Amino acid sequence: MSPSEPDPVAIVGASGALGFGLAVRFARAGVPIAIGSRDAARGQEAAERASAVVPSGSFSAYDNAGAVRAADTVILSVPFRNQSETLANLKDALRPGQLLIDATVPLAAAVSGKATRMLGVWQGSAAQQAAEMVPAGVRVVSALHTVSAASLSDLDHPLDQDVLICGDARADKREAAALIERIAGLRCVDCGRLEMARTTESLTALLIAVNSRYKAHAGIRLTGLPDGLWE
Amino acid sequence: MSPSEPDPVAIVGASGALGFGLAVRFARAGVPIAIGSRDAARGQEAAERASAVVPSGSFSAYDNAGAVRAADTVILSVPFRNQSETLANLKDALRPGQLLIDATVPLAAAVSGKATRMLGVWQGSAAQQAAEMVPAGVRVVSALHTVSAASLSDLDHPLDQDVLICGDARADKREAAALIERIAGLRCVDCGRLEMARTTESLTALLIAVNSRYKAHAGIRLTGLPDGLWE
Fold it and tell me: Are B198 and A222 a contacting pair at CB < 8 A?
């Protein structure tokens, strides 16, 4: 491994649309990806698909627990319906010091409702549910809810948008931002404490409504911000 | 009145920061403004301040009910703490056919909480509370939560952002958009039904958090949308 090669990133739920889109974008940016899926065979299949899209990419396939063991940074990209069960199953695989980037959105679609409506989560947000469930010492930030899976998977699609990051520790958010900004066209903005994920998660439902109206893959951009958002 | 002069717009709460900023921006765009305030004297004072900022502007001063009687379009720009009382007091002034653009945000600051936190509103959002309270036939849309009052009041500040509009009737949203887009630098986006105001209102709290972090007056822009959003 060359000294400049970035650390690998595990994607839990990488056979899903958002997870797969992130896998190919990160891989194209040179980040080795540990593909996780509920069963290793589906992980393998996703890794093969990803390799076909990014032949130069470094993909290894696991079940979700295997992927989590293979990287220090973990992106959780599963449907809300599965978030709690997934985190319960990962209890022994997650370890102190890891950074978990939660991208879960509690859409009402999880309970056969509309994708333009949110579920109320007792903890406040899916991200706060994740923070409550991970073993002590795992650092949780919330991000990546507003980047369309379709746009990520289409490598020719210019992203040109912001990623809104919430978390209780500035250093954790900065670490996540440094990773995410490896993807061309994404700028990360610090949106405050983890509890603000209530709003950033709900932007997914808003964008689904907008996309449905305009047949688009809209993203979010905050205007009026200075340069150097992570200094 | 020349045939091309736009209809007047009433601003309820125009002595507040957001209402005042909207008043001067609309006036500069040639829209006659009926300034409303809880008492007519404060309305008069706001109209004088506005005239000093936009000497060419057409401002008339009223109490809130007087302003509502003077225009077919009403912008409701009051603190959430006063929204319900204000609408109750306007019951006899509002009339069927009027368009009410609700800009209220249920920040926790209304109950001495933080401006980065939201209150839960039983109806779902401040806009839905407004829709429940207005007389039958008054059309309610939700908009203008994410445009900073400070940026509006500073006429030299380029706005360069979107206004997210929610409402149950496309025609009402289009009418609001045509008005709001008279302000240079604002583009209106149809964000779906009135219930989506839960999210657009909460963006105010998010932007307050971002602005606090970055000492900025951030706005929202949606990327990836086609031209002609109101055709």
Answer: no
Structure tokens belonging to residue B120 = 């839960």
3-class secondary-structure state, position A9: strand
With H, G, I as helix, E, B as strand and everything else as coil, classify residue B143.
coil
Q: How many CA within 13 A on the CB side of residue A9?
A: 29
pLDDT tens per residue across span B33-73: 999 999 999 999 999 999 999 999 999 999 999 999 999 99
Which alpha helices (DSSP H) does chain A contain, by range?
Answer: 17-28, 40-53, 64-69, 80-89, 126-133, 149-153, 170-180, 197-214
- Contact list in B for residue A190 (CB cut-off 8 A) is 210, 213-214
* Shortest distance, CA A219 to any CA of chain B (angstroms): 5
User: Is some CB atom of chain B closer than 8 A to the CB atom of A196?
Assistant: yes
Using CA atoms, how far apart are residues B46 and B170, in angstroms rounded to an integer? 33
Query: Which residues, 6+ apart, have CB-to-CB distance to A110 below 8 Å?
Result: A79, A80, A81, A119
Instruction: Give the start-end residues of each E strand in B77-144.
Output: 99-102, 139-142
- Residue B2, pLDDT > 70, answer no
Interchain proximity B223–A160, CB inside 8 Å: yes
B63: number of Cβ within 10 Å? 20
- Structure confidence by residue, pLDDT tens digits, B162-201: 999 999 999 999 999 999 999 999 999 999 999 999 999 9
pTM listed for this prediction: 0.94
Which residues of chain A make contact with B117, given a CB cutoff of 8 A? 195
CA pair distance B192, A202, nearest whole angstrom = 14
Q: What is the pLDDT of residue A1?
A: 47
ipTM of the complex, rounded to two decimals: 0.91
Min mean pLDDT across A220-224, B1-5, B12-16, B197-201 is at B1-5
Q: What span, in angstroms and rounded, lies between the C-alpha atoms of B44 and B59?
A: 9
* Distance between A66 CA and the closest CA of chain B, angstroms: 36
Chain B: nearest CA to A129, how far in angstroms? 18
Instruction: Judge whether residue A189 has pLDDT over 80.
Output: yes
Q: Between the CA of residue A95 and those of A69, A98, A169, B86, B176, what are the distances in Å?
A: 8, 6, 18, 54, 52
Mean pLDDT computed over A165-178: 98
By the 8 A CB rule, do B198 and B118 touch? no
H or E segment and range at residue A187? strand A186-190
Mean pLDDT across the stretch A20-38?
A: 98
Q: How far apart, in whole angstroms, are the C-alpha atoms of residue B6 and residue A125? A: 44
